[in-house]
Amino acid sequence: MDQRQALAAFGALSQETRLHIIRMLVVSGPNGMAAGAIAEKAEVSPSNVSFHLKELERAGLIAQQRESRSIIYTANYEALGGLIRFLMEDCCGGNREICAPAAAVAACCTPATKGELQ
After folding, report:
1. Long-range contacts at 53-59 (CB < 8 A, ≥ 24 apart)
2. What is the pLDDT of residues 39-63, one digit of tens each?
3. The CATH number of 3-78 is which of 3.40.30.10, 3.40.50.720, 1.10.10.10, 3.40.50.2000?
4. Which pLDDT value is given to residue 84?
5. CB pairs under 8 A, 24+ apart, for 108-114?
6. Closest by CA position to 13, among listed 84, 107, 70
7. pLDDT of 114
8. How far apart are the first and last CA of the chain?
9. pTM of the complete model
């Protein structure tokens, strides 16, 4: 992840409803959630949730796919892991043991282990 992508991600996450939505999608796992269920759980109108989902998708933090008449949204674990790795890239002046917990979290979202999340 480069600085431009990180800024877009942080911009998308800097709004309360969008942060809440991304956390819901992370918890829901690879099965994701339908837009209507997201709106209901986030306690916002469907048009409002649509706006926020579009912003999260534009930042690359979520993906969507159509299933019958529903659109299912999922967290983009690779992008979220990339954001963590971007923050921790030059962590702690080379003292890896300080950053080990954060590095372990970021490692769960790498492309190599992404399939294991499903």
Report:
1. 53/21, 55/12, 55/15, 55/18, 56/12, 56/18, 56/21, 56/22, 58/8, 58/12, 59/8, 59/9, 59/11, 59/12, 59/13
2. 999 999 999 999 999 999 999 999 9
3. 1.10.10.10
4. 86
5. 108/77, 108/81, 109/77, 109/78, 109/80, 109/81, 109/82, 109/84, 110/78, 110/81, 111/78, 114/77, 114/78
6. 84
7. 41
8. 23
9. 0.81
C-alpha pair distances (Å), 58 with each of 23, 54, 98, 105: 17, 6, 33, 24
Rounded-to-integer distance, Cα 113 and Cα 100, Å: 17
pLDDT by residue (tens digit) across 68-118?
Answer: 999 999 999 999 988 988 888 777 776 777 777 777 776 766 544 444 433
